[in-house]
Amino acid sequence: MDSRFEYPYNNPVADYCERLASFALGLQLENNSHKGYDAIDRAGTKYQIKGRLIHDSRSLYQLGVIRDLNANEFDFLIAVLLDPNFSVIEAYKIPHKLVAKYSRYNEYQRGNILRLSGRITEDPAIEKIGKMLRVELPDQRGIPDPKVD
What we know:
The chain is an alpha+beta fold. The protein has helices at residues 12-25, 96-102, 130-133, and strands at 28-29, 39-40, 46-53, 76-82, 88-95, 104-106, 111-113, 127-128.
């Protein structure tokens, strides 16, 4: 493949959700090459972060593939649902054992698939954290904020 077309990062939705969750929850974001989890908190708790852009009412609430789930490389999954304007619809903090309970293994994709609909969203052991993620991210482009005098 022509190296001009190689993109060494996640897709933009995944990158945005990882940055948003780590900023809002005070997590240290790991680099892209770290296997098994995306962020860690001060206590050493590990988080896998997945996001989904919901275009319309027909959109699937299916997250990206979760690989090597049985390796127990994260403690919680942070699952973020975004609207077309990249605003948080809802977000969930899901313990690893419940990711295993509600996901299904897909042989073709060689990983577990989790949909954020039905019983999983009502499970009392899953924390809804959407309000915590509705924050204004700092400008990281190096351009002065026009609102600041």
